[in-house]
C-alpha cells in the first residue's frame, strides 16, 4: 500500500465539513473522549506511537476507557524510556498501530476529541490513519491547553503545562507521562475549565471550541450580537448605534453565518473595524437563497453600507451607444433613452466600456472624434485619417450610406444578434500582429476582443430573460417541497416555498397574487439591476431548476454572441496565437 503523505493542519474547530457533534450541543450533554499519546518523540510520520490512553465522559460521568501499548516498529530512544518508563521489552508483544486504530476510531465515534496540546496528539493519529488506509473521522477537537490560556490568568498559574494545571485543579490522578494517567488527569482539568466557562457565557461545545481559539477582544465582547438569530435563509444587517447599516450579508443559515464573524476564522481587518462599531444585528428571513441574494443586492444598493465593497453603486453602470445624427460615433453614457436603438452594456466601469469601444474601433471604421458633423459643411480631418485609421467622414470622403454599411451596421448587428463580422476583423488583426512578432500589440487587441465578446454575451443573455413578461420556476427544497420564484422582466417579483407533500400550485397562485407589479421598459435591464437579473439567471440555469410557466418563449439569437463563449475563454486566458484558428 502506498504511503500517504501527511501534512500538519489546523484543528477542525467549527468547520462545516467536520462530522460528529452539533456545535450547538450544551457542554453538559456533550460526549468527550479525552486522549493522550506516548510516542518515540519524532515527527508524525504514521508511526512512532508507543501508547494510547483514552477516557470517554459525559456530564461529569465516565462512560469508558481505552488503554493499550503500541509497538512502534522502531527502537525507543533512551530518554523516552527514562521519561515514561516504557521499555523496548514492554512493546515487543504489543500490537502495531494498524491493529489498534479500528478500536480507537470506534471508541471516539460521535464524540468531541479532547487533548492537552491537541495538535500534537491529533497530528500523530491523523498521520497513522493516512499511512495505513483508515479514514480519519474529522471529529471536533477541543484543546485544553488553548482553553486554559483563555480561562486562567498568569496570576493563577505560571504556565499551562498539564502537571501545573493538574496541581491547580487538584485532579484525582496526577500525570505520570503514561497515556491513561495523563488522559485521566486531563479529564479533571477539562471539567475544571468548563466550570470557569460559565462566567464567559460559553455554554455549548461550539462556543468552547471557538473560545479556545485566538479571537479578538472585540469579537468576544460583541459575540452576544449573534444570539437569538433564526437558522433560516435570509439577509443579516449589522447596524451601528444610530441604526445605520454597516454591513449587509446573506446566508442559507443566518444564525450560523453571523456567529462565524465572532470566531478566529474571521481575520478581515475591515470586518474587525465593523464589529467594533456594530450594536445590533437585524435578520430578514427569506423564502430561499435566491430571495436572500436579491434582497441583499437591493439593500446594499439602497443604503451603500460602508463595509460592503461590492454591489454598492449600481447607478454607476455605463453604456456604450451610437449617437444620433449623420455619421454616428460611439459615446459612453450613464443612461439609455427610448430613442437609443444601438447600444452595448451595461459596463461596470467607464474603463471597461472604453476597452470595448477600442475593440470596435479596431474592427470597423467608426469615427473617434467628438465633433458634431454636418452633411453640408466640411470639417478638417484629424491625424487618424492621415494614418488610414478613419474614413474621414468629416471631409465627406465617405457617403453616409457607405459609412452606415461599413461602420454602423456591424455595431448594430454585433450587439443585437451576430458579432461575427467584428470578431473576424479583430482576429485578422491579431494574426497580422502576431505574424510580425508584435506580441504585445496583439495582446492589447486580444484584450479588446475579450471586452467586446464579454459585453455582447452578457447583454444578449440578459435581454433574453428580461424580455419575458412573467416567468415562474421551481427548484427542489433541501427539506422537501419546492422553492418557487416569480420573475417579471428580469426582476424577482415574488418568492415562496411549498410544503413537502403538497402540490406547489396553490403556493404559486398565492405568490402571483401578492407579487410585485413590474412594468417593462427599454434596454436589457428595464426593471432591475444587471446583477439581480444575473443572480436570477444563475438560479434558473441550475440543472435541478424547472420552468413552470412563461408568458412567452425564452430564446437567444441563433447566431448570437453566445456561440463565442469558448473563444472568449481563450481570449481571457490564453496567448494570442491560440486565437488564430477560431474564425468560423
UniProtKB/TrEMBL annotation:
Question: Which Pfam families does the record associate with it?
Answer: GIY-YIG, RNase_T
The UniProt record lists the keyword Nucleotide-binding:
no
State the Gene3D superfamilies in the record. GIY-YIG endonuclease, Ribonuclease H-like superfamily/Ribonuclease H
**Gene Ontology CC terms, in alphabetical order:** excinuclease repair complex
Q: Which residues form the GIY-YIG domain?
A: 231-309
Instruction: Write out the entry's keywords from A to Z.
Output: Exonuclease, Hydrolase, Nuclease
The family database entries (InterPro entries) matched by this protein are listed as: DnaQ (IPR006054), GIY-YIG_endonuc (IPR000305), GIY-YIG_endonuc_sf (IPR035901), GIY-YIG_UvrC_Cho (IPR047296), Ribonucl_H (IPR013520), RNaseH-like_sf (IPR012337), RNaseH_sf (IPR036397), UvrABC_protein_C (IPR050066)
- GO biological process entries: DNA replication; nucleotide-excision repair
Any one Gene Ontology MF annotation carried by this entry is:
exonuclease activity
Q: Give a yes or no for keyword Kinase in this entry.
A: no
Q: What is this protein called?
A: DEDD exonuclease domain-containing protein
Organism annotation: Micromonospora orduensis
What are the top taxonomic ranks of the organism?
Bacteria, Bacillati, Actinomycetota, Actinomycetes, Micromonosporales
